[in-house]
Design goal:
The protein folds into 2 domains: about 1-85, Helix Hairpins (Orthogonal Bundle); about 90-120, no CATH class. The radius of gyration is 18 Å and the shape is globular. The protein has helices spanning about 5-20, 30-45, 50-60, 65-85, 90-105, 105-110. About 70% of the residues lie in helices and about 0% in strands.
């Protein structure tokens, strides 16, 4: 359960899984970044050419399991990248949200999905 696991615990699960298979040798930053992108694109493929109604139906069907698995694959590579490169994901996300708060002030962007350089 999300409310029962820490990021550190999840990193350890991924690390133990990979070390048992002697995969450290294959997990350099470039290959892990490729893994993130590849898995994200596999997730994207599920939604390709789907309407809003199609996606709503899909997320309530057996296909949802495939979505969960692809999303988990993305998260696995993110965790592994962070674990292998000593990145504190909690601090990183907090810092990034702080920067985004400056780029996207609520009073200027609420309800708008434009990039920060398009709404000014």
């Amino acid at each position: 359960m999300d409310n029962e696991s820490t990021i550190e615990e999840l990193k350890k699960i991924v690390r133990d899984f990979c070390e048992a298979r002697d995969w450290d040798q294959f997990h350099n930053p470039k290959d892990l970044a490729i893994g993130i992108s590849t898995e994200a694109n596999e997730l994207l493929q599920i939604f390709r050419f789907k309407s809003e109604a199609d996606m709503e139906k899909l997320m309530k069907s057996e296909k949802r399991k495939e979505v969960e698995e692809e999303l988990s694959d993305v998260f696995y590579f993110v965790l592994r990248f962070a674990q292998m490169n000593d990145i504190d994901l909690s601090e990183s996300i907090k810092s990034k949200i702080e920067k985004n708060n400056e780029k996207y002030p609520v009073e200027k962007v609420k309800g708008c999905n434009k990039k920060y350089n398009e709404y000014k």
